[in-house]
Amino acid sequence: MNYIVKYLIIIGILITPFLNLGEVLALVKGDIESQSILYTPIYIKVLKDIVIILIISTLVIKHLMGSTIKFYIILLMTILLILINIKYSVLFGSSEHIIYGLRWIYPLFIFLLLFNKFNDFYLDKKFNFSLFLTFVIHFIFQIYELFNASSWFGAIGSLNLRNPGLFLLPNTGAFFSTIVLYWLLFYLNINKLLKFIMAVIIFLSVTLTLSGTGITVASFILLIYLISKRSLFLSFPFLPLGLITVLEIIDNLRRDYIQISGGTRIMILKDILQTNPALSDKFGYYTNVAALLGDGLIADSTYASIAGNLGLFVFVLVVIFLFYLFIDALIKGDKKKLAFMTIIILFSATTIIFEAYPMNLLLSLIGCKVYSLKSYTSKNLLNA
Description:
By secondary structure, this protein is mainly alpha-helical. The protein has one domain (2-258, 307-383). The chain has helices at 2-14, 16-19, 21-29, 42-64, 69-92, 98-115, 125-148, 170-187, 192-209, 212-228, 238-254, 257-275, 288-292, 302-310, 312-332, 335-347, 359-371, and strands spanning 155-156, 159-160. A two-stranded antiparallel ribbon has the order 1-2. Helix 8 runs parallel beside helix 17 (359-371) and helix 16 (335-347) packs antiparallel against helix 17 (359-371). The longest helix has 24 residues, at 69-92. The protein starts with a helix and ends in a 13-residue tail after the last helix.
């Protein structure tokens, strides 16, 4: 079972370059007409769903072979809460979006199923290779887009302003690179010089997207890492990138970038909080898939998506829980957890992290490693 899970994870990462290839090529060629139009065949995009379903199915079988009562209680409570929202949607709202809601929430089940059965074997050298190979391809696409892509997201002279790499949206590209940076800094044991060079490249990748969220989070986790290593002087090479970034952000502020981007998200969340009940009657309505198919609402953030799909009661619980985890990590000085929670909290404000692939899979896996009470190694693999 462990080997099946491991290789499904690797396959899940390696298929990433193909999932948005049509959209990326359309962006480069200047053929893109709308961000809501699919340019990659659906049979390619569905590959990630197949991989996720296979991972969940394998983990379910693994748990049936032996788990604690505590795990079953937590799992059943989670399922019950979702079923209540589904029933409420069927009785008082609309049921046609339920399938989108189930797809939206499956990363949570990966975390729940893997948390008590996590094994370092899943995130070994093969995982590192697949992750960084995917990043290299992502970065190559970014460099190509910088000089050759259409100016869909604006331009500086002859250079493309925002370069999403393997993804359609720059913020999503920054999200992926930021998680790679986190994994490199806190969990990859390699030569210090090589780690330094890779960190510079990954930070450059985030900068090329010109994502305010990405640059902020990447800078913050980099600062946390340098403080933990007492190596603030190593931040010097990042200063030119930071200066360029600041100048671009000032230019974006002049053009009301924050008002257009952040302001829209705030208004969406405000509307959902004012109009939605404690239990949602529109489970699945506030998902990217529903919006893409023209019969849902663009939530544009994880917080709005949770409030819309699961209701205000769950929204409040989630916000309190995230706040607790962040403060707890801050008080205890746990750098890994603090950086991880920064990624979760800030990217949730600009992205539906449950639907951003492969970040949803990566966060579930890394979250298990960060918070797992017991972490198996390959030596006791057979006993896991």
